Fold:
Amino acid sequence: MSDNYDYDLIIIGAGSGGVRLARMSAQKGARVAVVESRYLGGTCVNVGCVPKKLFVYGSHAGEDIEDAKGYGWNVPKDQVRFDWPTLVANKNTEIDRLNGIYQRMLENAGVTIINGTASLTDGNTVAVAEDSYTARHITIATGGWPVTPDVPGKELILSSNEMFYLPQLPREAVVWGGGYIAVEFAGILAGLGVETTLLYRGDLFLRGFDDDVRKFVASELPKKGVKLRFGVTIDSVSAEGQDYSLALSDGTYLTTGLVMAATGRRALVDGLGLEALGVQFNAAGHIVVDEAFQTAVPSITALGDVIGTPQLTPVALAQGMVLTRRLFGDGEGVMDYNSIPTAVFCQPNIGTVGLTEAEARESHGKLRIYRSEFKPMKHTLSGRDERSLMKLVVEDNTDRVLGAHMVGPDAGEIVQGLAVALKAGATKAQFDSTLGVHPTSAEEFVTMREPVAD
Structure:
């Protein structure tokens, strides 16, 4: 390591990718500093996947109480009470605990934590307030930030960030968007008793997911109390007493107590001064890097959501490992973005890995499609009208399973195991020869025998 700089590596952003890169680089003997202006752990820990899933658990508890009646548990409805401030306070306690863990991990690894807002004065110098720090390498790991469309009344619209700290729940809410964040928050609000409407400009939400999954979720969400309105968007928002009046693109109006936009995220690069240094951006505003996460400036690298790769914590963590090896290891290693498993914690959950049917038809030859729809065993006694979907996409000539998709309870937990199989190149014959765990929903993936389409 060179002694000409204060540090061998300065990372701007202490999210999942930045923290992993910092720890692993420090373990290889590098002198590392991390600059963070908000909170340790980034979006995932503070205003993303962790608190969101805690809210999902909380919103589903009421349904579990109702379902218990079919199993002999008599809980009078008038005795069931939900207290929103308790959920928020308990969530905050858990996030504070995780923040502390991240701080100790960095400190124990010998990483210097610099609190403040960073900017780059040149390719090797980071300014924070009145101080400047030099480094042989600088990595941008600042993540993303919610984007709200520029409509009249924009200032009245909340993003997902603010939803985690609402002082109280409204009676009615509108969620604007069609991605996984919108769908998840619509389910959270509805599960907590809020009359919820989801608005999306397209014909069907969850673009990028398998079409059967998208259609199936659209049929299940209304059973959970979510009103779906497709082909419509918000033209303006105005205050109307304690409520809000929404002018919609189809000429109608909607009154509600809360408006949340989940209409996309942008790379958070404000004030860094990257363009002046020659760092390049693509049309979507993401930092352009090569397979080694190298920008157009030799001393500057970038990883995570800020470069536009799949916005998933495990992706950022893996990128951090690859970049550590590139900077302070043998200089080798590349990311493999194939067959990345993911889950959407709507209700019921989505779990998916590999290619959608549409993607497989574009890139492969003849396919065999296996699909099963059924009522989960739990609901044979609960009486709830909820169904599950499972689907396998198989390449006909090789028998290789190209994609596995599920909608139902614990879909993410189930698909994680299937991701190993797909990564290993498992065939449908190997799925068929695997004994199921009975009685489970998961066994359906190894018992589907007859294709429904080719």
